[in-house]
Amino acid sequence: MLRVSFKRLSALAGTPRRMTSHASGYDLEAALEKELTLPVQGRCSVPTGLALALPPGFEAQIRPRSGLAAKHGIGILNSPGTIDCDYRGEIKVILFNAGDEPFVITPGMRIAQMVIQTVPETELVETDSLDETGRNAGGFGHTGY
């Protein structure tokens, strides 16, 4: 099991936690002193009050919570947000309101989920040709949907 250290940067920071035993993501909470209203079509950077120490070869992806998206139109603008293994600053979540009404973010509200993923060591190599596939350059909608 990979053990990842986290640090609370604020007394308002919650504990990242999986809500079920098989959940892939840790829920992150808003480390706010007071409510924050996110207007329709608005965006804001919400602090979590947390920092991570990821080992080399890993990243943390910050993803939307499906319930907030389905019920209120709340998403993460740069989804997924990426926390690199050498970053030690505060994790902040860039929320966006695509809903029909303002959304109130309350202190301690679960606003995102964090999934820790491996990052393979890679090297990009320039070439003059690429192998052929059945898709080739077929882009959005090339299969009819």
Give a written overview of the molecule.
The protein has 145 residues and is mainly beta. It has a single domain, classed as Distorted Sandwich (Deoxyuridine 5'-Triphosphate Nucleotidohydrolase, Chain A), CATH 2.70.40. It contains 1 helix and 11 strands; from the N terminus they run ββββββαβββββ. A 4-stranded antiparallel sheet has the order 2-11-6-8, with no helix packed on it. The longest helix is centred in the middle third of the chain and has 7 residues. The protein is globular and about 55 Å long.
Rg over CA atoms? 18 Å
Tell me the structural class.
mainly beta
CATH arch. level architecture: Distorted Sandwich
CATH topology: Deoxyuridine 5'-Triphosphate Nucleotidohydrolase, Chain A
Give the overall pLDDT as a whole number.
95
The CA-CA distance between the termini, in Å, is: 40 Å
Please write the string of helix (H) and strand (E) elements.
Answer: EEEEEEHEEEEE
Low-confidence stretches: none
Question: How are the strands of the biggest sheet laid out side by side?
Answer: 2-11-6-8
The CATH class is: Mainly Beta
Counted up, domains total 1
Q: Hey, roughly how much beta strand do the residues contain?
A: 25-35%
Form type: globular
Q: What's the total number of strands?
A: 11
SS summary, helix count: 1
Helix content: under 10%
Largest sheet: 4 strands, antiparallel
- Specify the CATH homologous superfamily: Deoxyuridine triphosphatase (dUTPase)
